[in-house]
Amino acid sequence: MRKTRAAAAVTVVTVMGTLLAACGGGTSSDGGGSNEQPKTLTYWASNQGPNIAYDKKTLAPELAKFQKQTGIKVKLEVIPWSDLLNRILAATTSGQGPDVLNIGNTWSASLQATGALLPWSTKNFDAIGGKDRFNASAVAAAGAPGKDPAAVPLYSLAYALYYNKKMFHDAGITTPPTTWADVIKDGKKISKNGTSGKWGLGLEGSNLQENIHISYVLAKQHGADFFDKSGKPTFTSPGAVDAVMQYVDMMQKDKIINPGNAEYAQNQSLQDFAKNKTAMVMWQAAASNFNSQHMSPSDWGAVPMPVQSGAPGQGKQVNSMVAGINMAIFNNTKNVDGAKKFVKFMTSDAEQVILNKAYGSVPPIKTADSNAAFQQTDIKVMANTLQTSATPLPQVPSESQYETQVGTALKNLWANVAAGKTVTKATVKSALSKAQQQMTQ
Amino acid sequence: MTATVTSPSARDAGGEGMSGTGGARKKPRIPGRLRRSVIPYVLLLPAILFELLVHVIPMIVGVVISFRQLTLFFIHNWGAAPWSGLKNYQVAVDFNSAVGKSLLHSFWITVVFTVASVGLCWLFGTTAAIMLQDKFRGRGTLRTIFLIPYALPVYAAVITWAFMFQRDNGMVNHLIHDQLHLTDHASFWLIGNNSFVTLLVVSLWKGWPFAFLIVMAGLQNIPGDLYEAAAIDGAGMWQQIRKITMPSLRSVNQVLVLVLFLWTFNDFNTPFVLFGKNGNAPGSADLISFHIYQSSFSSWNFGSGSAMSVLLLLFLLVVTGVYLAVTSRGRKASDG
């Protein structure tokens, strides 16, 4: 009996050891993928349109076209932004992921550091038509400087300031704002110190990404950055504190933002805009969303995002981050050649026009810029911003942690203001300092 | 030679308490005994394998990870992550640092939340079970209705609560502010300090039907004669509950409170769905499971997250052990 027990114990330990080795080993790290399953691809698309159904409808005919051309069936999953990063992380950890995926371009350096994505060497770029086809600024936002990019630009975006023409007209505002002082002055005419039931500016206070995008550009305008040259966080520099204070004060002091926006994270501010409750929103490519809410293109206008003074440009005059979506190939793919073909297809001139037109974004390829499909007001504003006055978010491995920590700090500040608590520069500094202390890498 | 071979088997036989003593008489029985002792293990093997796969191995992997520096640079190839000894644990329990301080804060929030939620779930469940103990018209319907929250999928139920608690368009504010004018201004429920109340309400709504179900089952085992005898002796309802119902439910309650405690303390789904996957839970509703998840997924530092999880596991083991020891001793004393 004892022997049997011992044998059982040995068996259990052996089985466990084997399984542990299988689990703990992760996946082969030589990279590059294989071609074991040349007939199928799994594609994780980010949610670019007003909702997931819209994206599925947009992509389905294109994927069918690709299948007809190559015989490869693409299994599509459209993933909401709130889930995308966690899904990618889980896939990276387990090695069980899609073959091709969209990533927010600000995650490029972080994901590049994991080694989960196929590096786009010159050879790989040549397989899809060459690096030179793409706009340089878009490629710069696809990985850390000096390394092979981790992804290929797919859709480019920048922020624009959208304004509701009817509300501007009703308030007697004739020219849209160009500086933050104008935004506040115009906003006050509409929200009347928070008493009119209408609001000057809308935002998504519980959306960490938006908090980051706007506060980063504001910090740049104050001559600050959130990372120093060596990649160390510098969240509490006076410029960063001033920038966040300026942003928060639009709700607290100027009362041009509805305190209710503090809990928004599901594009509610666009609904408010379409319902004539909010006069301005800062957004990337909102046109298709407005369209789905029965706003005609003549109901809204779009102008470059505000600066502190003067005209948009480089340095302190930047007015948007380089936003965009990149397309990456997962290193664990079992159809690496098919995946490259798919990336080539999606970045081809014809598809770029179709897709960017459907999503209201700017094609990152040089040939498509002058296409007649991209002459709509906000697209022109975005394209111009990308060329002249946009700045990439820090391309450092801890970028996503920065988004979470500083984005959460902003979310909590909005919550405090909304709850009627006074937020001072000291409060802002302490919130940013707490965020910086949580940065553990 | 023969002697050395037979003597261990004789000792084995003695160890098993078998009646046979002589080697010669025992020999023919060995195959049967072997079969008897092996077959149960063979039959158990699939169950053991799945138990290992589903529970034990992930747990062991988690513990192993907690001793490694598993950051974003290594998540693609875990094997290459360097060993870090106790460093992850030191960071988690260094309450002077930001990471440790926020973990401790989250721990206390969770303790308060768990005590409140378990207490209220138990109170609501027990009260409802006792009220529905006597037969009356519509009792079956009421019992069914009460069990609905327990039967609903958590995600669907909690997302509905999240909609209802929205400040500008939610039903809760519409009721208590717009209709009943109970508050001066529309309150936030999903951000700020009220979120603790929100979390508690949803947790109670979700948890009390389980208490109700278990107590109701326990009540079926109390003989009706006891109540009849008590009524004849002149005991009122309160006395009956105190002297008969509660002592009879003791063993049921012991398990119920423990299970509720573990579920509530470890609750992840409720804050995850209620406060959005997009951001951290508000400070006043920062439950520890969600906190650990957030801190590992925002920093991509899974070693540190695992260390926190292991600490949580140890804490729950200690609490469970002490709880069972104390309540069982108390019961034995009262039974004896």
From TrEMBL, chain A:
The entry's keywords: Signal
Query: Which stretch is the leader sequence?
Result: 1-21
- A Pfam family that the UniProt record links to this protein: SBP_bac_1
Task: Report the PANTHER family cross-referenced here.
Answer: ARABINOSE-BINDING PROTEIN-RELATED (PTHR43649), DIACETYLCHITOBIOSE BINDING PROTEIN DASA (PTHR43649:SF12)
Protein's name in the database: Sugar ABC transporter substrate-binding protein
TrEMBL record, chain B:
Q: Name one GO biological process term.
A: transmembrane transport
Gene Ontology cellular-component terms listed: plasma membrane
Q: Which residues cross the membrane?
A: 38-67, 107-132, 144-166, 247-265, 306-326
Cross-referenced Pfam families: BPD_transp_1
Instruction: Recite the UniProt keywords alphabetically.
Output: Cell membrane, Membrane, Transmembrane, Transmembrane helix, Transport
What does the record say about its membrane topology? Multi-pass membrane protein
- Residues annotated as domain ABC transmembrane type-1: 107-323
Q: Where is this region: Disordered?
A: 1-29
- Please report the name of this protein according to its UniProt entry: Sugar ABC transporter permease
Organism of origin is Streptomyces montanisoli
- What are the leading ranks of the lineage? Bacteria, Bacillati, Actinomycetota, Actinomycetes, Kitasatosporales
